Amino acid sequence: MKKVLLTALALFAAPSLALDVRVGDMAAWKTLAFRNIAANTVTANDEGLHIAVRKSASPLVYKLDAPLTVTGVTVEANWVGALNLPENTVQGEAGADDSVLKLGVVEAGDRKLNWLQRRIAADWLQQLFKLAPAGTGVRRINFLSTTQQQALVGTARVHPLNDLLYETRVTYLPAPGEFTMTYRFPEPAGVLGLWISADGDDTASNFDLQIRRITLHSE
Fold first, then answer.
1. How deeply is 79 buried, as exposed, middle or buried, from its count of CB atoms within 10 A (0-12, 13-18, 19+)?
2. Residue 162: enclosing H or E segment and its boundaries?
3. H helices of 113-217, where?
4. What b/e readout covers 125-139, taking b as 16+ CB neighbours within 10 angstroms?
5. Which of 27, 41, 52, 160 is 20 to 30 A removed from 4 (C-alpha atoms)?
6. What is d(CA 88, CA 169) in angstroms, rounded to the nearest whole number?
7. What is the pLDDT of residues 2-57, one digit of tens each?
8. Entry pTM
9. Where are the beta strands (DSSP E) in 102-197?
10. Which residue has the higher pLDDT, 164 or 129?
11. What is the pLDDT of residue 2?
12. Percent of the chain beyond pLDDT 70?
């Protein structure tokens, strides 16, 4: 296992102190859609990335110019609107699996799609594996998420729908407004790209998310 990890990290660019993601450059993001779910409206300008959620959900994918060993992430953002979580539910469970922001860190690994899987897999899954350089694979998407339930902060789970999806609840959002999400990985992670989700389809929620800055730390 150690040999595999060292081999994977050898693919990564020499570390710098920080890398600011091009949040205001729409050409840097690939927009995807889920079948039978309305897509978010996404725009970008000098103020950052704007995601309008209208009972909708759709991911955004950002491929790094070169793989990078990352020790932490900082996101500066603002949101307006409401997330309508049903009473007596746990955020993330069926019927309540929406979040204002899930920043997915796509980690390098040795999982690949075989020939048949490449032909039949959903588009989002195929796009995920396309982030890996030729001859390499993906370990998982580690989603760093906001939550409206304070008791969930610090908890983590493998998503019940797919074991490629891992979630760490990082930031409590008691009300709309500006927020900063900061997370330091327990161990440096080999990162291929980012995956942004802002979802309101399960809970019929309407809100706007403005992501002003995403910084990947590698010190």
1. buried
2. none
3. 115-120, 123-129
4. bebbbebbeeebebb
5. 160
6. 19
7. 444 443 444 444 445 789 999 999 999 999 888 889 999 999 999 999 999 999 99
8. 0.85
9. 102-109, 137-147, 156-158, 165-172, 177-197
10. 164
11. 42
12. 86
Determine the Cα angle at 91 with ends 204 and 177, to 5°. Answer: 70
**Mean pLDDT value across residues 142-170:** 91
Measure the CA–CA gap between 219 and 216, rounded to whole angstroms: 10
Q: HSE-up of 40 (CA within 13 Å, CB side)?
A: 28
Written as six digits, the tokens of 58 are: 């759709």
* 2-217 under CATH 1.10.3470, yes or no: no
- Average pLDDT estimate for 78-97: 92
Cα-to-chain-centroid distance, residue 101: 8
Bridge partners, residue 107, by sequence: 140, 191
**Which pair of tokens denotes residue 34?**
């889920």
Contact 188, 50 (CB under 8 A): no
147: Cβ contacts below 8 Å, ≥ 6 apart: 91, 99, 153, 169, 171, 172, 173
Q: 30 Cβ partners below 8 Å, 6+ apart?
A: 60, 61, 62, 63, 127
List pLDDT tens digits, range 187-219. 999 999 999 999 999 999 999 999 999 999 987
Do you know the residue count of the chain?
219
Nearest partner of 152 among 74, 90, 72, 83, judged by Cα: 90
Which tokens is 130 given? 């396309």
Write the CA distances from 48 to 24, 62, 75, 107, integer angstroms. 4, 14, 11, 24
Q: Sketch the domain layout of the chain as residue ranges.
A: 2-217
